[in-house]
Amino acid sequence: VAHLPDKANNYLAPALSVLEKNT
Questions:
Q1: pTM here?
Q2: What secondary structure does DSSP assign to the chain, as a single string?
């Protein structure tokens, strides 16, 4: 996600963290 804009990263980062916790 490093190549994505900060706005995209701001919502993707927490979403990915939640997904990782759920798995």
A1: 0.33
A2: -TTS-HHHHHHHHHHHHHHHHH-
